[in-house]
Amino acid sequence: MTSYYKYYLEIKNRILLTIFTWISLLLICYLFKEPLLFIFINSNKYYLNTTPYFIFTDVGEIFYVYLSLVFFIANQITIIMLFYHSLMFLALGLYRLEYLQLRSVFKIFIFVWVCSLILLKEFVIPFSWSFFLSFHKTEEILQPTSFFFEARISEYMIYFKNLYYICLINCQGFAILTFLLNNMSNTIGTIKTFRKLFYFLFILFSTFVTPPDIISQVLMSCSLIIMYELLIFFKYLIR
């Protein structure tokens, strides 16, 4: 009973630390809400040489945007801290090799998360924003009707969050796929046996995480399949 009580105390303390971290992040992010919002907006290269311009149609819309931004940042960092506390709690009950493997997985998760942020800020948002806005920049002869775009700040936040989750899921999916293939059996025949199953999972995964158009699904599926075949080829070279 004493050992179980110690586990209970440790779990309670780690939960309290996680809650305290979450509340502290909320307060800190709210104090710096204007710079954080500017960082999110400034990631869009469309406003690189001009002042960012957004509209709002409700009196409390800006306040709700700030709250949404604060909770979004606090929740993302708290999830990472929750994974860290889970790793520390399980560390004492694991063998050294198991602990090292779990720690490596956690480091890979953090590295891929940072890479997904860089990819989102430097490539995904600027490219997607320029692509969608390019439809109203056609010649007047071909398009006699004029379009004028005014972005709402709340809709831009939703747009940013959707791209963030899509980019994060895709990057983590690539990392998980690489990890699983590297830890499979050394025999090439075992990997080739599950080729059709992996192809089906790639198509299913692409259907859920990409926008509802066939081009995005095909590109994502082909990327996963090419990566899968390259990993098989590298395993063959290693042997």
From TrEMBL:
Q: Which organism is it from?
A: Nitzschia inconspicua
The coding gene here is tatC
Q: Which Pfam families match?
A: TatC
Q: Tell me yes or no: is Transmembrane helix among this UniProt entry's keywords.
A: yes
Cellular compartment(s): Membrane
Q: Where are the transmembrane segments?
A: 15-32, 53-73, 109-132, 163-181, 193-212, 218-238
GO BP terms: namely: intracellular protein transmembrane transport; protein transport by the Tat complex
Q: Name the Gene Ontology molecular function terms of this record.
A: proton motive force dependent protein transmembrane transporter activity
| UniProt-recorded name of the protein | Sec-independent protein translocase protein TatC
Describe its membrane topology. Answer: Multi-pass membrane protein
